[in-house]
Every structure is written in structure tokens, then in C-alpha cells.
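Morning F.,

Quick status update on the modeling queue. The single chain you submitted on Monday has been processed. Sequence for confirmation:
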Amino acid sequence: MKHARFSLDIASLHAAYREGTLTPRDLVDVVLERIAAQPDRNEWIHRLSREELLGYADSLEGHSPDTLPLYGVPFAIKDNIDLMGAPTTAACPAFEYRPAKSAFVVDCLIAAGAIPIGKTNLDQFATGLVSTRSPYGACQNAFDSRYISGGSSAGSAVTVATGVASFSLGTDTAGSGRVPAAFNNLVGVKPTRGLLSASGVVPACRTLDTISIFALTVTDAKKVLQVAAQFDAADAYARPAPACVHAFDTQAFRFGVPRPEQLEFFGNTEAQRLFAEAVAHLEELGGTAVEIDFAPFLQAARLLYEGPWVTERYLAAQPLIDEAPEALMDVTRTIIAGGAKPMATDAFAAQYRLMDYKRAAEAAWEQVDVIVTPTAGTIYTIEAVNADPIRLNSNLGYYTNFMNLLDLAALAVPAGFQQDGLPFGVTLIAPDFGDEALLPLGDRLQHATVQTMGATSHCLPDAAEGLSTPASRIRVAVCGAHLEGLPLNHQLTERGGRLVKRTLTRPAYRLYALAGGPPYRPGLVREPEGRSVEVEVWELPAEHFGSFVDGIPSPLGIGRVELIDGEQVAGFLCEPYALAGAEDITGHGGWRAYLAHRPG
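C-alpha cells below.
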């Protein structure tokens, strides 16, 4: 067909639709032709028929890319996520059922114009990072069939990497949405727990599971995430994103890397080289590398399978294990059956330890904006994994198992190729709900390290405007009437400002209550004998920063304020002449505390 060679990235697809050189019905035939022409990598469990696919295509009549953000975009679904009418197996034929409705996220994507192609292979019951634990066959790497594709969301990654789907859905409890991305030159979004609904997902560990997204580019991943991240009140574990989320300047940022002795590549010197190069690229992009203590993250990671959380896997599969244990593969049954042993005392003891590790890990965020690690320290052949399935699988979780336990957001990004042609990837990590903050940096890093998408020969499109444009937002520290909830805060929110964090200045400032008002205002002055003062850091779109500054009356002005963590941001400072008759209120620690004690 004349369309057989074009790229399935969303921008290319939508350009063809707008030009009239492609229709959704054409797209269906292109996808089916590509599937038929490729070697079978055991990536599919169930595919929709041409008639079913054309039904989805025809439902888009009267719409266009201008009315539906995912108009005519083909996607694949991991087979532990429901698609109405299609079988869900979780890679266990005895478990199969046909759902009467689709998963909440799948419905969101279809409503936005996406076309589901089928259900993909996985490590049985999403238990594994290796892609070999399936009765439907080991899912082979998109670059070299001798190697694993990564699991458990194996088929979902391979369908995107081989150019038969624009994006796909996986799940990620222990790394299943990131390891396959790294092994197949893809972007993998591991959202904050609860940001994407888990309604219609076969649980692995219900308290930790999240749907994940595989895409060819960060731009595509962002489009899918924005459609999928709708709050689902029917999911008890769903969480709406708060107004104040983690954000940072992707042109001048600090990124954490584990100490050298805490990095592990399992003898793979190529992976070690590529990680060092990724760190160098981040420095070239404006980052400052900061060594962090990775021990609390590693300690938390060990709890996932060595602690009582494996009991959640047992609960999800218990009826089948009790009634027909032979229906599970030996390695899957061995792992999940271990979940029957922990007692309630074990669960509480592990929770106490986890909270200790989480508090220790939080210290890293006082030093850095983002953390970067290898997504996986190495890659293995299918033969090697079959010979040593437990230990090698555990090795692949070294940099991933802690993520949901510590409630973090992650973005897996391609970061080059080994000399043997196999891909390597790194993961960018942020605190919970920092998902979108990672995207611009991930986009810049992907463009700095690779030129092609997935295992296709298609060149990576130019960096997307709005993701990688420099200085798109400016941070400003406020200490008085512009604080959240106070009289002048609207001057920030009306300009699209968002609260980034509440923090302190370094101990080098004094705070004064200035004469006059209302509104009553403080003056922040840098003095050698100063103290730390409470401030809020807000982000403003760069195009609105000038009008905000123009509205600041004398004696206040914008200068550089140094925060307690060493970061320097724009902030309100007061000219010294205005301190005549002003009250020194530094002892209160901040403007809110002063207002609470102010007479009247």
C-alpha cells in the first residue's frame, strides 16, 4: 500500500489526515498489513478483526484531529486491562473472561478518537520483568529476537517499537512500564499512583498498581497522558492531581545520581558507559549533577518481593491458585503462592520500615529537582533468563521496584545504543504528581541521545514547541500578600501561576512589616545577621512575568532570593529606605505567622 512506510507518531498521522492522504479506514489496513508482514514475536494474545477495527474507524466520521486529540490513532492494550467484548486473560487461559465494559482509561482514549488494535502478551498476572513467563510464548525484543523485550508489559512495548501501534497501555507495579521501554527504544510513562484510573485492570498489587503508557516520543506520551489522566470516582485508589505540583526549570536544574558504589550494571560495561554519557548530556542541557544517597531507595525496593506486598498478588489470583494451581506457570505460581505466608504483623512491620525509608529518601528532594538512574542495569537473552529466572528478574528491578512504594513519578527515556545495537534507557524521577514536570526534560534528553523511534527507521521529529522551548516558565518567591489565599494572590493565579513549593530562605534575611495599607505588606531585606523566612515559590509563564513585575509598587522590587537549599530564584526584596518606621517581624518566621499574632 502507498501508506506502508509512513511513521505512526501522532503528529505524522494527524498531518496525513489533515492533508487528506490518509483516512482512518486506510489506517486500519496499513496496520493489518504491517502486522502480517512482520515476524511473530509473540507480542499479541488477541487482535480485533478487520470488521471490528473498521467499526471504530467509521465511528470517527464527522470528526478530525481538530476535534479529537487522538483521532485515528491506533493503540494496543496489555491483556490485563479490559476492552469491552475482547477476552482478558492476564496471560493465563484458565483465567479468561470477556468484560461487559472497557477499563475507564480505555474508554477515555476511545472517546478521544483512538482505535484499539488488540490485547498484548505479558508476564503472567503481570509478575515479572522478563517477558518469558507466558504460555503464549516469550515476547522477543524488537531489535534482536534472542533477547528479552522486558516485562511484564512486553507485547505493549513491542507493538509500538515495531511500528504497528502509535502508543500502548501497560501496567507498572515494579517496573513493567519502564524496563520494556528501555529495551525497545521507547518512552515509558510511569504515572503517579492514582493519577490514571485502575478501574478495569486485573490487579497485581492493588495498592501499588498503575496503568502506564508506551510511546514513540515524549510529545506523544504527553498527549496520551493528558487524555487518560481523568479522575475516576469509582476507583477507590484514584487521586486527582493537586493544584500545587512539583516543577522545576528544565534549562537550569539539579539532578541526583546515585553514588558510584550504589550503581549496579551487573557486569555490563556498555550500559555503564551509556549511563555516564546520559549524565554528561544532562549537564550539557543545563543540569548540575549531585550525588545522592540511594540506599533508602534500594532498601524500599527490597520490600516489594521480600516483604508482604506479594500477598496482594496472591489475593488477586487466589481462587485460581486454590482451585487449579496447575493453570499457572511454575515460576509464577512459586512467586505468587509465597504471598499466602505473611501475617498481619508482617504487613504492619513492613509498613513501618517503608515509612522510615520514605522519610530518609525525602532528603534527596532537598538537594535536587529530579533524579536520574539507569532504567535497567543490563539486558539478558531469553535463554539466560530461562536458565536463571528468579535472580536475573530481580536484577532488572534494581532501579524500579521502589518507585510505587515511595509514591514517585517516573519517565523512562531512550539514551542510546550498545555497540551490539541493543537500546539503553534512563529514568527521570520526580516526587508524586511531578509527572508533567518531567516531560520537557525527557523530550530534550531523547533528542540529545537518539535519532530514530522504536525499532523503526523513522527519524525522531524535531523537539516539540511547548515541551522543549527554553525558559517557558519563571519561578518567583513571594513572602507577603501574594501568598496563597491572601489578598494579592490573584495577581499570580490570573496569569497562570502555579504553586511549586513552600520553603524557607537561607538564614540571611530579615522581614519587616511596612507602614501603610491595606493591603498590609512585608519587606524582605538581605542582612548578614538575618534568619530564614518562610516563602512560597510560584511559577509564572514567561510571557506574563513582565506584566506581573510592572505592577509591583515601590519600595518593593524583584531581585534574587536564595532559598535554604541553595537555589536562587526571582523574589520580592525591599529597598532599605522603606524600613524607617517599619516593624521587624523576623522573629515570627514569616508573614502568615505575623498576621496570626497581629492585633486586630
